[in-house]
Fold this protein.
Amino acid sequence: MRSDDDGALRRFVADRFPRLRRSAYLMCGDWTDADEQARAALARLLADSHRGVEDPDAYVWCDLMQAFRHGPGRREHIFADAEGETPETVLLLDALHRLAPVCRAVLVMRHAEGFAPDEVADVLGIAEDRVAAYEAAGLRALRDLVTAR
Amino acid sequence: MTAKLLDAVPAHEPPIGDAVEDIFRRAEAVRRRRIRALLAAGAFAVVGIAATGYALTTLLLPTTARPAPATAGSMSAATDRVLEVVRPVLRASRLRVLAPEPARGDSWRRYRVLTTNGRSRGVIEISTYATPKALCFPVRGHPGVCARPELAAGGVAYARYADDRDIDWQVNEVIARFPDGRVVAVQATGERGTGSAAGGRPAFSAQTAARIATDPRIAMGLGDGENERCAAADSACPVLMVPVKPAGG
């Protein structure tokens, strides 16, 4: 992707922004923060596009997940202010946020965005077998947390 | 359950609004910020290189290009304690001293004397000498005879000399000896090479020279004599019409 094709860039941004924002919401549980992180990641992609970006999807998701890597870890309380969400959604989000950030990132990328294990490994900078391990552990923990309620 | 995860989120997703335009504006801001950071880093590097060069130059130059001590001194006129004494004495005689280019050594000074109109009236030379055990104030034309000195405040003994026999080298000179043994000579030399007795007359009298020579601040301004060089043969030291000689020398 290069900055000289403005139309392609606009189509890419318009298409990826909602997906990126959903991923960010699953990571942080806050639409305002998710919106901010998604815009910032796409803006950095556009700023770097004049140098040519080989895989823009990998770039923006990698950027996004990096932002959450050093953020708050496991949440210890329920989403009391998830306005408008169904109780089932709130419980699911709460269970998701009780996982470790890297475990949560693997589940979001694999099951919400449909990335292949090798793509997740590249984006998160971990080995592919670790992706499978995190995914299995995350799903197991998520199931336990949801059924325990 | 993963399907639930996918379905759960979009239900109350906020509208996108002007997100696309905002992202492009942010990208432009990021580019401008990077350019500014690049320029600032470049400017910082240039300033750093210049400062390093300046520091190295100032550190290294004095060791490679130190001037000879007998020529132009490194001390400014503002810190010359001898000049602080000479200047008011000569100002009373409506004379001034050309301070920017005094010749100087560790134990001597030479200043040009000017009228208030800026006309050169020769030079004043001040020198100090290592402490001889005894000093003979010479008598002109009578070698081996010592003059009876006059006494100034503080027990300073001094003798005045005036010599106008050579119209191209007319001097008024004073040799003063302090109680601690330090000797100071002050010589006023008129403008040389004028070819006339009036034009070559010294700018001030031997009495004025005595006021300078007997001032203890002069000896202090020239140091304690440890670096005194003028007692030995040194071409840079003032050449006195009446030389300072120890008794019996």
In short: Chain A touches chain B through 35 residues (CB under 8 Å). Residues 73 and 101 of chain A are 6 Å apart (CA to CA).
